[in-house]
Amino acid sequence: MVGEAGGSAALPDEAGGAGSGPPMFRGVTALALDAKGRLAIPSKYRDVLAVPGTGLVLTADPSRCLLLYPRASWEPLQERLMALSSFDAKIRGLQRLLVGHADDVEVDAAGRILIPPPLRRYASLDKRVVLVGQGRKLELWDEAQWQVETAQAIAFPADGLPPELSGFSL
Predict the structure, then answer these.
(1) CATH topology of domain 8-146
(2) Do 23 and 70 contact (CB within 8 A), yes or no?
(3) Cα→Cα distances 67→18, 103, 162, 170, Å
C-alpha cells in the first residue's frame, strides 16, 4: 500500500442510521496494485468487505473507474437494471457495461482482491490507484485520472450547480 488517508466503513447504525443495513463507505485512500494486479483492501474496510461467504462485485463505470460493491448491495441494483427494457439502446448499453463487466471477486487470506485484467485495462489501472468511498459502494480510480476528476469537480462556476443542489448547504 502507498498509504491511507481518511475514510471509514460503518454500518448505518454506527454512522447515524437505524438498524443494521448495508455498509456505508466514505473517504479517499491512495493504494498500489501489486505486479499481479491485486489490491490490498485497507484495514478500515476489511471487516466489512472480507466477511466469509458474502463476496464482492467489481464492475465498470461509465466514468472509466471501477465500482466495488458488497454482493448484497449489488444484487438489487443488477435486478433493477436488468428489469428495464433492453429495447432501448441506451439502457441496453448500460446493461452491457455494468452487468457485462461485473465480476465476482473474493478477499484472499492476505486481505487482497484480484482486479481482473479486462477491468484493469478498462479503467487504465497501472500501479498507483485511489479507492474512494461513495456510500454503499467504493470507486477505484487510476490516481492521475482521480486528480483530473477532482480538479474538474472543484472548477465549476458558482452558478453552474445542478438545480437539485439549490439550497443545499454544507
Answers:
(1) Chemotaxis protein chec (3.40.1550)
(2) yes
(3) 25, 10, 24, 26
Residue 98 in contact with residue 81, Cβ under 8 Å? Answer: yes
Domain ranges of the chain: 8-146
pLDDT tens, the chain, 170 aa long: 334 445 545 433 333 333 456 678 999 999 999 999 999 999 989 888 877 778 899 999 999 999 999 999 999 999 999 999 989 999 999 999 999 999 999 999 999 999 999 999 999 999 999 999 999 999 999 999 999 999 988 886 666 777 787 777 66
One-letter amino acid identity for 6? Answer: G
CA angle (15 as vertex; 10, 19 as ends), nearest 5 = 85
Instruction: Report yes or no: 4 and 39 within 8 Å, Cβ to Cβ.
Output: no
Interstrand relation of 128-134 and 28-32 (parallel, antiparallel or unpaired): antiparallel
Nearest to 15 by CA among 3, 24, 5: 24
Reference 125, options 38, 40, 56, 48; nearest CA is 38
